[in-house]
Design brief:
single chain; alpha+beta; Immunoglobulin-like; Neutral Protease, domain 2; 8-stranded mixed sheet; 5-stranded mixed sheet; 28 strands; zinc
Amino acid sequence: MSDTTLSLTRTEAEERTALLAVDRYDIAVDLRGLFEGEVLESVSTITFRCHTPGASTFVDCVADVRSATLNGRELDLATVSGGRILLPDLAAENVLVVAAAQSDTGSGNGILRSVDPSDKLVYVWTSFEADDARRAWACFDQPDLKAPHAFTVSAPETWTVTSNNGPTSVEDAPDGGRVWTYPDTPPLSTYVVVVNAGPFHEIREERGDHSLGLYCRQSLRPFLERDAQDLFDHTANGLAFFGERFAQPFPQRRYDQVFVPNMGGAMENWGCVTWTDSVLFRSEPTHGQKAVVASVLLHEMAHMWFGDLVTMQWWDDLWLNEAFASWAATWASVNATPFIDGWSTFLAQSKLTGYAADMGPASHPIRGDVPNVAQAMANFDAITYVKGESVLKQLVATVGEDAFVEGLRAYFREHAWGNTVLADLMSAVGDAAGRDLSDWTTAWFDRAGTDTLTLTDGEVLATGPDGDDARPHHLEIGVYRQAGEALEKVGTAYVDTDGPRTAVEGLPDEADLYLVNDSDLTFAATRTDEKSLRTMLASAGGLPEPISRAVAVSTAWNMLQHGELSTDELLTCVLGVLEVERSAGVVEPFLQMALKAAEQWSPTVSIPAQLARLADVAAALAEEPDHRSPALRTLAASASTEEHFAILDAAAADDVDLTWRVLARRSALGDYDAAAVEALQERDPDPDSFVRALGVLAARADDEAKAEVWAQIYDEKAIPSGMPLFGLATSFWRPAQHELLVPWAHRYLDEIEKLSAEGGMLTVGSLIRATAPSTADQAYLDRALEIAHRDGQNPTIRGELLTSADTLRRVLRARG
């Protein structure tokens, strides 16, 4: 096979869809070579029809092809190139059999074999979005050639195998190990099938009509058992909620969730979701962490309907999968879990990343041009997920939830097990709402950038990006008057913008604050009059609802990013809210925002003083039982006085996680205690505790310490993806150590240049994103842009560089 793996183009996919219909896949997978080695073997038998007998096409296989026969005749393996096997002279009905072996099982490109560092047990998982099924076995790897899959898996005798449904039999193999046989799946796209294996710990529970399973590596057993009931509750409630709201119950009994090592996120495989096991937190999770787990669980579950049952035709509608699942997750969180402030949390935490991505040079339409799968990979970003979710929330506000749900029911009913484009969804919603949504669709989904809505003299002035016409917006303006320390709501004006100027009906003349986009119904940068702004900055904590407080604080953050507020003004606003905030759903995001503002957005000389301000507020908030844990964690990141450390030392006596955080803070302040690190690592039950130890080392303002950690990240690639890697990078990049870190920022660009050719979800989606610098200089920005704009640059790397460089440009401006 040639060294260059080709990326499937949209044109090639359309041609193959017009030519073929896939009847079924029968796939034999042999994992026994992974017990002590690196090779996964497969035999893929594909039964398919050709609408034009005599025509030719190709099948995808990015592995070592050992043999291939088409309708009983041997194919010439010398023609295998670019991850493709040529299929000449097709019959009307065809059977293709391809035997292949994959030895790249350590990079995370579709398959990962990992060894638990604590007990040396081996685990294997697969994750195939967008086109990595071809790395495991031969297939027509595109979303609109759906077919049933039947797996037969040979595995070591001590391993448990999970796939899209339960096995029909598990038998001893004559040549060693066991053979797991699975029934046909429903017609599925190649990217949502799965095979995982290892000596998993399994917990099962019957809930309603479903058999629910949870799996993890043995070393994480106590953490899974701690969280199991919450996971079962959220799963059962989510299946019931979505089944009823979509008028389409999940159609198979078995629903498994497998927590695997060294995975950056989660993947919506039909009936068998894989998760990063870093969400099995190694200390008692906070309210915010529990909310994130519930949200991810519901996001992946929503994909069972939107993505698996009904699948986009091509990757230009990737956003439709991801944005819908994100919207549905928040919707279900509010209605079917204890996390009823989900929309406030979404605004305070996630939505700000969508605004940041949309204001930078990597912004793109939600529905973008995707000429090939490589470009699709670049769209796994905050535009697709977060702005997409926000726009769906605006759609629901525009047509009404009842009409939206009725449209969804018709959509699932009509397109079950098929493929669709955006127009199919929008016509179903439009029919239910009794309106034509074609212009609305074009305005919101086919244009990049964020509109600005400004309230002045009783009108909403709406401007689009770069001065273009704005989109139509349905929003609320909250009217508030000061009542002592509180802001009392005295009215709400409902506005549907029409053109550049829209008069606001029924807006009281006298108010202390007009809060634009109250309830956060639309996606826009909002501005208000000077009096309202001053009231908002000084008294946002007096607003009566969490969503209103989140709107106020996020508006201030947006103004900071645009250079319209100082970091000090932003901190005054958010710290003022935190002094009185009682909603757990927004306390943690506000604490995180305040820490970022104090540590990254403040002039270097001001960082200690700003962190001390935050530490005082966090110390006071730690007296509140409901907020104690996130407040103490923030205090550990900002502690500045002996009084702060005394509070932390008392709280950390039996709290391993908090002790790690305190050690890292002391290390950053010049007090690195190697003996304390070694002692803590010995008593930490986390099998990945070495990452926490490296985090304490990484925090040191010492070049040799930075080099040691860097080698573990980039040379050894020893750090698990996802949260462990992000946490370590946060310890490494300490903006107060600016002068020391500037050369390391350039070193990051050196690594980017090496990684550009690797691609892969783990490499790009986790490593490059997680380790991006939080401080740099102008020379870094210039070089980052040059690398991003090189001909042939990996689209995902280009987008990451452009977005992170734009954020750093704004940070440097804020620092003055």
